[in-house]
Amino acid sequence: MPALYLIRHGQASFDAEDYDQLSLLGEKQGKHLGQTFAVNGLQAQHVICGGMKRHRQTAESCISGMGVDVTSLSWQIDPDWNEYDHLDLLQAYTALPGVGEQMVADMAGDKPRAGFQSHFAKAMQRWVSGQYDSDYSESWAQFSARIRRAVEAAASSTKGNVFVFTSGGAISAVCGQVLGLTPSSTAELSWQLANGAYSKILCGQSGMKLLSINEHSHFDGHHRELLSYR
């Protein structure tokens, strides 16, 4: 019976020219997660990465932290685990009259990340509503179907532990499907997922069961400085 550990990538480089790479904090998060797995005696029989750099870098940091040779593991790259295109969502949203100007103004204040987040949440809710699908290269329904295909493939890959390194939107989509959440609630769930956290899915003959979500206790206590959400 496969157990899927859906691992959110470490912190990406928000302020860098290339967002799709881990920050120094993101590298530390991945390594500490691997060290925690090693202490708990948790091993992977198979590793799946989305096709993004931050997915692969998190996997390498985590496996290194476990003290395991990457080449000794069964390894697979599956682009179906890629995150949605956040730039596509923003482009459709900021094309609305007056929205782009307001977003620039809000991000020019003392808290640019908060300004960005408030607008991005609106952009996502517009996307998941399903009312404007023609505005996007990949609709919410298409994204959800892709993630469903990815998780079904992962569940059939082995009978042991499968570590899946992916993004928050993909993980929240899986959890939303298992729990029967609405698209809006699924989008809200994605904001709560910590970098380097994991959610555990058990796959059996009766279907998929969500055993834990957003597990990030490895960042509690003395390791609190490693906790981030964006």
Short descriptors:
230 residues, alpha/beta, 6-stranded mixed sheet
Q: How far apart, in Å, are the first and last alpha carbons?
A: 33 Å
Give, in order, the helices and strands: EHEHEHHHHEHHEE
Sheet having the most strands:
6 strands, mixed
| Unreliable spans | none
Enumerate how many helices there are, as a single number.
Answer: 8
Structural class: alpha/beta
Mean pLDDT score = 92
Indicate the radius of gyration in whole angstroms: 18 Å
Helix content: 40-55%
Task: Describe the global form.
Answer: globular
Strand line-up in the sheet with most strands: 3-2-4-1-5-6
**How large a portion of the residues is in β-strands, by DSSP E?**
15-25%
Number of strands: 6
What does this molecule look like?
With 230 residues, this protein is an alpha/beta fold. It is built from 8 helices and 6 strands, in the order βαβαβααααβααββ. Strand 5 (198-204) and strand 6 (207-215) form a beta hairpin. The model has no long low-confidence stretch (mean pLDDT 92).
